[in-house]
Amino acid sequence: MSTGTYVFIGIVLVFLIFMIVIYNSLIYRKNQIENIKGSIDALLKKRYDLIPNLVSAVKVYMDYESKLLKEIVSLRSALYGEKSIEDRLKASDRLSELIERLFVNFENYPDLKANNSILQLQLELSEIEEQISAARRAYNQVVTDFNNALEMFPSNIIANILGYKRQKVFSIPQEEKKNINIKKLFDSHES
After folding, report:
1. pLDDT averaged per 10 residues in sequence order, the chain, 191 residues
2. What angle do CA 127, 129, 95 make, to 5 degrees?
3. Is the bond into 173 cis (omega within 30 degrees of 0)?
């Protein structure tokens, strides 16, 4: 074989290795997105399983808040009817609001505030809420990395061949970005 043939084979091999690295990088990023979606689902399930314990512990003390408890249980059930991760997280946000409202109402029940099992459940729920928030941030980061790879040369060529599409990051509606009117919030809880 001539030197030109070896050079050509070398160039082809370098090109193939380069394409394999890019391909593996795209697969890695796609799988990271799926992994974090699974983590979010696991956290939502953990909270889903914890809510009945909280509701049954609180029912004894809070006949007055039965409407709120029913809404929490109803939303908990509806949460898993949602198909997309975005819809599940929107329902999850509403559930978080109701749970937060429930915790605010604990202040009206000194026996409830002092109950160790309720305090433990409240602590676990708060921890899960933090983990869900962290998982959302991680999801947004891996989606951003994936989307960057889809748009950057030369990985965009392989991404187009594979048919990969941009993923959506989690975002909140415009109205939730506004400052909260605390007085209005407390007035609505009193009525």
Report:
1. 90 94 94 90 82 70 65 74 75 79 68 66 82 89 94 92 89 57 46 46
2. 135
3. no
Q: Token pair of 123, please?
A: 């602590």
Domains and CATH numbers, the chain: 29-190 (1.20.1440.20)
pLDDT at position 21, please?
A: 94
As given in the structure block, the two tokens for residue 136 are 């959302």
Residue-by-residue DSSP string for 137-184: HHHHHHHHHHHHHHHSTTHHHHHHHHT--PPPPP---GGGGSPP-HHH
Identify whether the C-beta of residue 103 lies closer than 8 Å to the C-beta of residue 122: yes
CA triple 168-173-174, angle to 5 deg: 125
Task: Enter the DSSP assignment of 84.
Answer: S
| Spatial distance between the Cα atoms of 138 and 32, rounded to a whole number of angstroms | 10
Q: Who contacts 122 (Cβ-Cβ below 8 Å, separation ≥6)?
A: 54, 103, 106
Q: In whole angstroms, what is the distance from residue 119 CA to residue 54 CA? A: 10
Q: Sign of the C-alpha dihedral, residues 126, 130, 136, 142?
A: negative
Q: Please give the Cα distance from 11 to 175 (Å, whole number).
A: 55
Closest CA to 64 of 101, 119, 111, 108: 108
